[in-house]
UniProtKB/TrEMBL annotation:
Residues 17-182 form the N-acetyltransferase domain. It comes from Pedococcus ginsenosidimutans. PANTHER family: GNAT FAMILY, PUTATIVE (AFU_ORTHOLOGUE AFUA_3G00765)-RELATED-RELATED (PTHR43792), N-ACETYLTRANSFERASE DOMAIN-CONTAINING PROTEIN (PTHR43792:SF1). This is GNAT family protein. InterPro entries: Acyl_CoA_acyltransferase, GNAT_dom, N-acetyltransferase.
Length: 189
């Protein structure tokens, strides 16, 4: 059976970064960049009760922070999910895939940090957790996000029409990307 984030030996280290489980003490650091216009443009402005929501166990259970030289520069969501299956096979589909999401301080973009962090998380998902599939989605207009997905080997599986409400209040098109464990192994393992 695939693993859970609690099964990983934290923190994870890359050449330049440290990834670790988020704690309530990380709320101010995360809020400091999530409220900036280049980040809020895609995920919306933080709610007034951001600290309360951030501290919720279901939020901390899926959130990692990205540190460079001990400073939080971004975060990654790793939400382990069940795949669809008929009732007779539901047990085999439990916790076999993950949805990823990310945000990064705007002044830290363009330096390869997001790519490095997502590559580490993909390795963790496929090698450390034994997942079979990882997905991520974004607004079709979020070029930086979908290019990151393509850089790490994910392939576009779907384009949806006006399926999500952008923080601007407009309905926008979206992209869904995915990567299977065997695709990852063939290209990156």
């Amino acid at each position: 059976m695939p693993g859970q984030l609690d099964d990983i030996a934290w923190p994870l280290s890359t050449q330049r970064l440290t990834l670790r489980r988020a704690t309530t003490d990380d709320a101010d650091a995360v809020l400091s960049y999530r409220r900036l216009p280049p980040v809020a443009e895609w995920i919306g402005p933080p709610p007034e009760d951001f600290h309360t929501r951030f501290a919720a166990p279901e939020r901390l259970d899926v959130l990692l922070v990205i540190e460079r030289a001990g400073v939080v520069i971004g975060d990654l969501m790793v939400k382990i999910e069940d795949a669809w299956a008929p009732a007779t096979l539901a047990e085999q589909a439990q916790g076999v895939q993950a949805e990823l999401g990310w945000s990064l301080r705007p002044d830290e973009t363009g330096k390869g940090y997001a790519t490095e962090a997502v590559e580490a998380v993909l390795r963790m998902c496929f090698e450390g957790l034994g997942l079979r599939r990882v997905v991520a989605g974004c607004f079709a207009a979020n070029t930086a996000s979908y290019r990151l997905m393509e850089r790490v080997g994910m392939r576009r599986e779907a384009q949806t029409l006006q399926d999500a409400l952008h923080p601007s209040g407009r309905w926008m098109d979206g992209y869904t990307y995915a990567l299977l464990a065997e695709e990852w192994r063939a290209s990156f393992a």
